Amino acid sequence: MTGSPRRNGIKATSTKSRQVKTARVGEENDQEFYGGLIRLHILHHAAQEPVFGLWLIEELQRHGYRISPGTLYPILHGLEKRGLLRSTTQQDGRSVRRMYSSTAQGRRTFERAKGKVLELFGEIFADEGVKK
Description:
Elements (H helix, E strand, L loop, with lengths): L5 E2 L2 E6 L2 E7 L10 H14 L4 H10 L6 H13 L3 E8 L2 E8 L1 H21 L8
Helix pairs in contact: 1-4, 2-3
């Protein structure tokens, strides 16, 4: 087979007579654009009340984001390292859960980011009636 036909949203290349999946076509390739939005969403909830990883995964799924623990926890650790989140451990019976809360710096950063998001999204959606 020559070229790289697309079937079911998968770009395939051929080596001899077998197809090798090389890339998803569509939404999966858009994930790089959502990293900042996910971080803001985490800061939003962590400013309201302490949150934990599984709850955040489920909350993000509710909004259409599919994020694995292997992706989420490095984000949480990075936000904590930057001083935007603080974590504590909470024991519930035999289970230990790490809870994340926003720091004062995290809340200030989130408030500044909200203004920038509003400005940018206002421009992006100006033709659709969203005001700045």
